[in-house]
Design a protein that fits this description.
This protein is mainly α and about 500 residues long. The protein has helices at about 5-15, 15-35, 40-50, 55-80, 95-100, 105-140, 145-160, 165-180, 205-220, 225-230, 245-250, 255-270, 275-290, 300-315, 315-325, 330-345, 350-355, 355-385, 395-410, 415-435, 440-460, 465-470, 470-500; strands at about 185, 190. It has a two-stranded antiparallel sheet.
Length: about 500
Amino acid sequence: MPMTDALLSSVEQLFSLATLISMLIGVVAGVIAAAIPGFTVTMAIVLTLPVTFSMPPLQGVATMLAVYVGGCSGGLISAALLGIPGTPSSVATTFDAYPMARGGEPGRALGLGIWASFFGALISALVLIVAAPPLALIAVKLGPWEYFSLILFAITVVASLVGRSILKGLMMSLLGLFVATVGPDPMMGVPRFTFDLDLLAAGLPFLVVLIGIFAVSQLAGEVENPDELRQGQALIQGRLTVRPLVVMREVLSRPLNLLRSSLVGVVIGAVPGAGGSIANLIAYDQAKRASKTPERFGTGIADGVVASESGNSATAGGGLIPMIALGIPGSAVDAVLMAALMVQGISVGPRLIMDNLDLVYGMFLAMFLAAGMVLVFCLLSLRWFLRITEIPKSIIVPVVLVCCAVGALALNNRVTDLYLLIGVGLFGYLLAKLDYPLAPLVLGVILGPIAETNLRRALMADESWTLFFTRPISLALLVLAALSVAFSVRRVLRDRHRTATR
């Protein structure tokens, strides 16, 4: 499809009344979900997925992007007003937004975060438009050797970044790869590791693992304390005053901080498995290092709020870069977006831009549109939607659990998936209690079939293993994988040495 025709087609589909309404609902859902401490954006996206099955591809993906972008902004609400991050990617936001709110400026704290989040999302969308198509053109020329090495590199990166133990991260990645082998062989259809159980005959569906690990395990943790389960807590007390234009000028008066933090978010978001929680902290750290008054960070200054929120929101566009260009999800949310496209029968990877240019352009435009919707909604409805957090956990937990069950059942209409959902969820809860990172496991399940298929294609094309090391790009990726592990081990040893010498 010519570029002009593809762009016009995407505009026509995106600005239809049905798509605009579903995106607006998605924005509201994303903001509210992220504003509730413990209810992550990933859970909101997973619950949105079954709803999009009956939608046209662009409408479904645009709706999920709206939830994603809304969730990136919503987490700052509880972070600023209670000092409790609504999502893991809002941790650094509490460092300055909460002291600012406690100092009598809650409206300014929220306004700074909302505008910084908006500009961070816009910058990441611009980088996405520039970076994704060239990467896709390069990726088309890659063979199965390069793809296998790329996936291996992605797994080592997430294993080294998540959690405090590189060994535990690698173990979870390997466990995810093993889980991906349960069920029919992806190329020959031969059953593997099913132990003659009908429960495992179809394998462990990706969505069941995703919902079980990220939603059910977390809900299980929420019901540990019966007293907390019955309590509801308001996010806001008193009256908020926000002057949007004044706060916008304050954010734009820090262009270097805003641009640097947004680019940090884009780069971190493009690293598979890293995500907003890491970008949030790194952007804040870089802003503090570049500041002439680093001692003021943590006391309630605007630079800290701008850095953390722009870095967090910029991961939305950054995570889409490897998904669109390479077919590798940058985060669990991007993995769900991939699943949505696959359910619609759309191949994800380098051919996505070649075969579905109108869909890709629509995703680009949806990022801008969702960012604008989030901004308007947050500024207009700030003091009203915060009341949602007064709902007790005794109501939220069972409602969300039912939604998870419906989402797991909707994909294949198999009751056995519900049993698997409960089993995977309890297993994930146990792993979390033992301080094992869950993200590498999920990434292993996502990338396992892709890695296996490319490994077997490579060996079918040429049985020599040396091609993985003689092809330049493949060799470079394998070296990067080894370096990521080596640097992580070095960092762990250095931290242990510092702790021992104190």
